[in-house]
Design goal:
- The protein is an alpha+beta fold.
- Helix content is 58%, strand content 14%.
- The chain has five helices and three strands.
- It is elongated and about 65 Å long.
Length: 102
């Protein structure tokens, strides 16, 4: 039984810009230039967020000439989704469990 969700990954994905990046990368592999265009964020700010996502294992890079492409690691997102599914299943049974007050 699951006791908690990966809090570090939740912290990483809790930032609105990082979540936007992940959402965009769920649709297609993009380079930094594309992500700047899509998000309106400054390149340096975006690069810092991409570094955090890369270090957390959420995205991986693919060099292509002078550009670096980023792609989402679906296994990481699927793992987090599985943790939430377990949490939801636990919550369904918890409705039947009620601890008596002393």
């Amino acid at each position: 039984m699951l006791t908690s969700v990966d809090t570090e990954l939740m912290r990483v994905l809790g930032d609105p810009l990082r979540l936007r990046i992940v959402t965009l990368l769920a649709r297609e592999t993009l380079c930094t230039t594309h992500l700047v265009e899509e998000t309106g964020a400054r390149q340096t700010n975006l690069s810092n967020h991409l570094r955090v996502l890369r270090e957390a294992g959420v995205v991986e890079t693919e060099p292509c000439g002078r550009f670096t492409y980023y792609k989402l690691r679906p296994d990481v997102i699927a793992s987090l989704a599985g943790q939430f599914a377990e949490l939801a299943a636990s919550a369904l049974t918890a409705a039947e469990n009620k601890r008596a007050c002393p």
